Input
Amino acid sequence: MILLIVKNIQSKYRGTIKNYMLEVKPMVFVGNINSKVRDFLVELCNNYSEEFIMVLDRKNHIQGIEIIKKGFDNIQDICGLYAVSLKNRKIQ
Output
């Protein structure tokens, strides 16, 4: 299972992604795709979107997932572990 989140991509490229994956929310896609299609979608997102993140499961990784991203600076790979930083919010 693969999760893809894209920000600011043109509708024609969004339609291309929909050919391979199911859009569960606007700009959020899930699906089972092979490595050739995955590489095609990563290249498409690199060229035509401001930010994207693709989460791949069942990888030989300490957390069992792999993350491919452009932008999303709050996600860092630290010694093989993915860390997500959250902005501090004031509690009222």
About this structure: The mean pLDDT is 78. The radius of gyration is 14 Å.
